[in-house]
Amino acid sequence: MAVGKYRLKKTIYHDGGICVGLAKDYMAQGQNLVTILQKDKEGNLKYPGTYEVSSNIITQYPLKAFGKMPPQYFVPFEALKKVRVEQLGF
């Protein structure tokens, strides 16, 4: 089974909370891994590590399209589960 991998530049503030925009075109059925590259004022990653979210959870959230960008699911940050590298199996 393929694993979806997202490398996001930043999070999105949506409906009063922090979300990640996960493009439908890149989503794998099953496991999806998310890395957020956003940094704080000191240059440290705001959300260090890798996070996991299943396609079943992703599709529970709204799908939105903006201009020419592919449609994205707006998934609350709380829905992501932080994983350790050794848990990933590769």
How does this model look, in words?
The chain has about 90 residues and is mostly beta strands. It has one domain (about 5-85). Helices cover about 10% and strands about 40% of the residues. The strands form two sheets. The protein has a four-stranded mixed beta sheet with strand order 1-4-5-8. It has a four-stranded antiparallel beta sheet with strand order 2-3-7-6, with no helix packed on it. The mean pLDDT is about 90.
Write the layout of secondary structure elements.
Blueprint: E1 4-8, E2 12-14, E3 17-23, E4 31-36, E5 50-54, H1 55-58, E6 63-64, E7 72-76, E8 81-83, H2 85-88
Parallel strand pairs: 1-4
Antiparallel strand pairs: 2-3, 3-7, 4-5, 5-8, 6-7
Uncertain segments: none
Could you state the order of secondary-structure elements as H and E? EEEEEHEEEH
Amount of helix: under 10%
What radius of gyration results from the CA coordinates?
13 Å
Counting structural domains, the number is 1
SSE class: mainly beta
